[in-house]
């Protein structure tokens, strides 16, 4: 049984319609929040996968840097050996 208060309109919209709009808005917002949380979880799972891949890539980069450093060290040693060889050859030539 509707009272006069229920029939009263606010700018042409009845109170039951306002309650319907309010509850449907709350349900819609709750649904969107739930959907957003699901997408966030999926995104986090994918991010973890990418992080593992990034760690693998980072490890390879570090190994390459290490190899480059070793190659630089070997090149320095070769240069030292060549310098020493040149000095030995010069000394041999001086002695003759």
What number of domains? 1
Low-confidence stretches: none
The backbone outline, from C-alpha atoms, is: rod-shaped
Terminal CA distance: 128 Å
Query: Strand content of the residues, in percent?
Result: under 5%
Averaged pLDDT: 82
Q: Main β-sheet, in a few words?
A: 2 strands, antiparallel
Q: Give Rg in angstroms.
A: 39 Å
- The structure class reads mainly alpha
Taken in chain order, the helices and strands follow as HEEH
Write down how many β-strands occur, each being a DSSP E stretch of 2 or more residues.
2
The total of helices stands at: 2
In short:
With 96 residues, the protein is mostly helical. It has helices at residues 4-7, 15-95, and strands at 9-10, 13-14. The protein has one domain (9-95).
Task: Report on the architecture of this protein.
- By secondary structure, the chain is mostly helical.
- It has one domain.
- The chain is built from two helices and two strands.
- Strands 1-2 form a two-stranded antiparallel sheet.
- The longest helix is centred in the middle third of the chain and has 81 residues.
- It is rod-shaped.
- The mean pLDDT is 82.
Q: What attributes characterize this protein structure?
A:
89% helix, rod-shaped, 96 residues, mainly alpha
Write the layout of secondary structure elements.
Blueprint: H1 4-7, E1 9-10, E2 13-14, H2 15-95
Antiparallel strand pairs: 1-2
